[in-house]
Specification:
By secondary structure, this protein is of the alpha+beta class. The protein has a single domain, classed as Winged helix-like DNA-binding domain superfamily/Winged helix DNA-binding domain (Arc Repressor Mutant, subunit A). The chain contains 4 helices and 3 strands, in the order αβααββα. Strand 2 and strand 3 form a beta hairpin. It is globular, with a radius of gyration of 17 Å. About 10% of the residues are buried. It holds the Pfam family PadR.
């Protein structure tokens, strides 16, 4: 495996969990799949539709999202919103993200306790 392939694999692994946190954060306000893709892309998250839609279905099956079809417009759209459990998971994941970011920063700071 080349260094580029190795790095690419590690970056993909790192990003995989961040998409869950980002999606749960964004979907505190109702949103549909394509708008979520656009919002995530604008924020710098590289995620493809064939990754995002199964993730949304999985989060819904886990009770972290609810969905409802909006048929008021010409094209029906399935809107997702976090449940109270989804909000709690998002908060816990963001707290853990902050803790891990501080821990990595501390490891990278000369003279910090390891």
């Amino acid at each position: 495996m080349t260094m580029d392939a190795t790095l690419s694999s590690h970056l993909q692994e790192l990003r995989r969990g961040t998409v869950v946190v980002a999606s749960l954060t964004v979907l505190r306000a109702p949103g549909y799949g394509y708008s979520l893709l656009e919002t995530l892309a604008a924020a710098g998250f590289e995620v493809e539709a064939n990754t995002l839609y199964p993730l949304l279905r999985r989060l819904e099956a886990q009770g972290l999202l609810t969905s409802a079809w909006n048929t008021d417009e010409a094209r029906p759209r399935k809107f997702y919103t976090t449940t109270p459990a989804g909000d709690a998971v998002a908060d816990a994941l963001r707290t853990e993200w902050t803790r891990l970011d501080k821990a990595i920063t501390d490891l990278d700071t000369p003279g910090s306790p390891a």
